[in-house]
């Protein structure tokens, strides 16, 4: 059989990497090639994803290989899957990265891999790719390496010296789901590897604070990803799991990936994917916990009897409708914590309110300049010239403040 060309292998392995969502590049240290070397962690390129700060970033996102000795039911690259297989050498991935960077196609590399031969062998190949880039090409751009928790702990730790960010996927929200759908993987082993990375990151941060010559270690921290909709986990389960991961391992991000049906799928998997809006609602709930001060329990209070977040409205509005007794809030007196719970008010809007009310009383017209939708805010606030009276008690309040059904525009409408 003829070996696939470089272009064919790139097509196969770039497509195989699309199921990994955790490729944002924010949070690392700033480096550039002004004093020598190649690449930068700054700048712009062809946009493939967005960083949490809204910046467009472009990464060469590929697998080292899609061969795999594991047989995870939900994975398109499982050993029993009938897909085209391909493999790169570490040198080939390094050469591709440098070539694409010099053509201004990318600004960094996101590298993952199927497990070939053994976990240790694969981890060594991933590390060697990063080593070639850093030491032989003096590449100073962004590198995100996907760790293999089954590999030796020393190998996993070594990767942090070459990568800006490292990540280990927890795969599924519950241990029961992982045992059933990924029999080759172990939840304690995954969490043990994540804990080892957490310790190494903290140790090197401490060393860097004491000694300027101490080497950097994964300056952008670690992240993880879990698949949504492949097992029976509810949104409340997922929110609780994500919160625990943030607390235990100091993660920068938890990414969610809606389960996508795959060819020749196992009978234990759902026949269709969950609605993509469910993935979006989970990201919104994650944002509430990370930036709005909501506790996991508060987000879980926005779910229904089955533990699912509503799909037609965002979690923040769902929580406010469930706890109407906490509103309306006087924007001229309420604390920042409570103002962040007003539907339609973001962090910047709340900070602007707090700054403005030091000098004068806030009126409804002032909020109109700060919020995207004044109609969404009105039932939940009191200003110097506005009080919602009985609006908050209306049975149809959800319809009033919720998003309007989308309408198809007519191209030749009169």
Report what the structure shows.
- The chain has 414 residues and is an alpha/beta fold.
- It folds into two domains: 6-274, Aldolase class I (TIM Barrel); 323-401, DNA polymerase, domain 1, CATH 1.10.150.
- 37% of the residues lie in helices and 9% in strands.
- The protein has helices at residues 6-16, 90-102, 119-136, 153-159, 175-181, 187-210, 235-249, 276-291, 296-300, 315-322, 336-339, 347-356, 364-368, 374-377, 397-401; strands at 49-50, 56-57, 59-63, 108-112, 142-146, 165-167, 222-228, 253-258, 329-330, 381-382.
- The strands form three sheets. It has a six-stranded parallel sheet. A two-stranded antiparallel sheet has the order 1-2.
- Helix 2 (90-102) links the parallel strand 3 and strand 4 (108-112).
- The model is unreliable at 24-34, 38-47 and 407-414 (pLDDT under 50).
Write a concise keyword list for the protein shown above.
alpha/beta, 414 residues, 15 helices, two-stranded antiparallel ribbon, 2 domains, six-stranded parallel β-sheet, DNA polymerase, domain 1, TIM Barrel, globular
List the helices and strands and how they pair.
Layout: H1 6-16, E1 49-50, E2 56-57, E3 59-63, H2 90-102, E4 108-112, H3 119-136, E5 142-146, H4 153-159, E6 165-167, H5 175-181, H6 187-210, E7 222-228, H7 235-249, E8 253-258, H8 276-291, H9 296-300, H10 315-322, E9 329-330, H11 336-339, H12 347-356, H13 364-368, H14 374-377, E10 381-382, H15 397-401
Parallel strand pairs: 3-4, 4-5, 5-6, 6-7, 7-8, 9-10
Antiparallel strand pairs: 1-2
Helix pairs in contact: 2-3, 3-4, 7-8
């Amino acid at each position: 059989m003829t070996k696939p060309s470089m272009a064919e292998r790139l097509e196969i392995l770039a497509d195989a990497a699309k199921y990994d969502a955790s490729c944002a590049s924010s949070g690392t240290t700033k480096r550039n090639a002004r004093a020598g070397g190649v690449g930068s962690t700054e700048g712009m390129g062809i946009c493939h994803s967005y960083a949490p700060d809204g910046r467009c970033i472009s990464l060469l996102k590929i697998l080292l290989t899609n061969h795999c000795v594991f047989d995870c039911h939900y994975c398109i690259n499982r050993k029993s899957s009938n897909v085209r297989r391909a493999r790169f050498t570490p040198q080939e991935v390094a050469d591709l990265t440098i070539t694409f960077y010099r053509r201004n196609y990318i600004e960094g590399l996101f590298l993952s891999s199927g497990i070939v031969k053994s976990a240790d062998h694969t981890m060594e190949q991933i590390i060697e790719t990063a080593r070639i880039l850093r030491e032989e090409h003096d590449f100073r751009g962004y590198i995100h390496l996907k760790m293999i928790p089954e590999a030796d702990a020393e190998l996993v730790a070594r990767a942090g010296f070459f990568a800006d960010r490292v990540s280990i996927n927890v795969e599924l929200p519950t241990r029961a789901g992982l045992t059933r759908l990924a029999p080759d993987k172990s939840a304690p082993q995954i969490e043990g590897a994540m804990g080892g990375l957490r310790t190494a990151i903290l140790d090197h941060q401490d060393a860097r604070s004491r000694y300027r010559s101490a080497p950097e270690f994964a300056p952008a921290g670690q992240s993880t990803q879990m698949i949504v909709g492949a097992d029976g986990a509810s949104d409340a389960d997922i929110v609780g799991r994500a919160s625990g991961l943030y607390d235990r391992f100091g993660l920068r991000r938890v990414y969610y990936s809606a389960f996508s049906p795959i060819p020749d799928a196992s009978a234990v998997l759902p026949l269709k994917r969950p609605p993509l809006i469910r993935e979006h609602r989970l990201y919104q709930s994650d944002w509430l916990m990370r930036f709005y001060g909501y506790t996991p329990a508060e987000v879980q209070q926005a779910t229904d009897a089955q533990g699912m977040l509503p799909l037609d409205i965002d979690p923040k509005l769902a929580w406010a409708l469930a706890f109407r007794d906490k509103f309306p809030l006087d924007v001229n007196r309420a604390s920042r914590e409570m103002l962040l719970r007003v539907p339609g008010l973001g962090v910047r809007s709340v900070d602007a309110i707090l700054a403005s009310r030091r000098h004068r009383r806030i009126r409804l017209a002032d909020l109109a300049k700060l919020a995207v939708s004044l109609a969404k805010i009105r039932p939940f606030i009191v200003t110097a010239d506005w009080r919602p009276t009985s609006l908050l008690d209306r049975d149809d309040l959800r319809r009033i403040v919720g998003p309007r059904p989308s309408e198809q525009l007519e191209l030749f409408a009169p």
